[in-house]
Amino acid sequence: xxxxxxxxxxxxxxxxxxxxxxxxxxxxxxxxxxxxxxxxxxxxxxxxxxxxxxxxxxxxxxxxxxxxxxxxxxxxxxxxxxxxxxxxxxxxxxxxxxxxxxxxxxxxxxxxxxxxxxxxxxxxxxxxxxxxxxxxxxxxxxxxxxxxxxxxxxxxxxxxxxxxxxxxxxxxxxxxxxxxxxxxxxxxxxxxxxxxxxxxxxxxxxxxxxxxxxxxxxxxxxxxxxxxxxxxxxxxxxxxxxxxxxxxxxxxxxxxxxxxxxxxxxxxx
Length: 269
Known about the structure:
Elements: H1 3-19, H2 23-26, H3 28-31, E1 59-62, E2 70-72, E3 83-85, E4 88-90, E5 98-104, E6 107-114, E7 131-135, E8 139-143, E9 184-191, E10 194-195, E11 201-203, E12 206-211, E13 214-221, E14 240-244, E15 252-260
Antiparallel strand pairs: 1-15, 2-5, 3-4, 4-15, 5-14, 6-9, 6-15, 7-8, 7-14, 9-12, 10-11, 12-13
């Protein structure tokens, strides 16, 4: 074996040791020749008939009626306290946030949400239709009324707190918001952070986000746990829940599904 190829293999093995995964998984990048017909093909799934619907390998978290995948975050769990009607669930007054029963790591998460029409224009900034979608219970994609055009008064807020921002860290590349009362979509691809056995960060979390079909974050490194007025930072953690926030605003959610994605253990970056 050539020295250069041997060096590559050694590097892959070292990566595997750091990530705590098998050497076999790390060797996959070197195992096959180009166009090798012995290489196993990917599993077959049935794609959705239309955009936004779950493919066959998705876990449906909310179909418009069934909330059995969720629990209340207050008092250690319990039934979802939000209003369920007309195919959506709506944050109820003082109901508290909700989270999934199951934890998730790497995933594709699809969520539809809607901010209410007719809000008093005097209600502005972070009080205007505020909520959030949390990954692993700690990385927040902001939900807010950030719609603007020539005939609509912009809801001014800090850039890293508008709709589709990674809250407190990264504004979206563009504002792709629809009008209040119209349904909006988040299609999220998320890669978890990795810590070594000593709790040292090996790989930051990453996110790609399409807001209403528009890429607003592209393979972005997340800076750490979401906090308010505190710079994001990492602390070692295990798996976490998907969390929908109650921020005392009647935000609606529907058509929520998730696909668990496999780790690619030979990738650090």
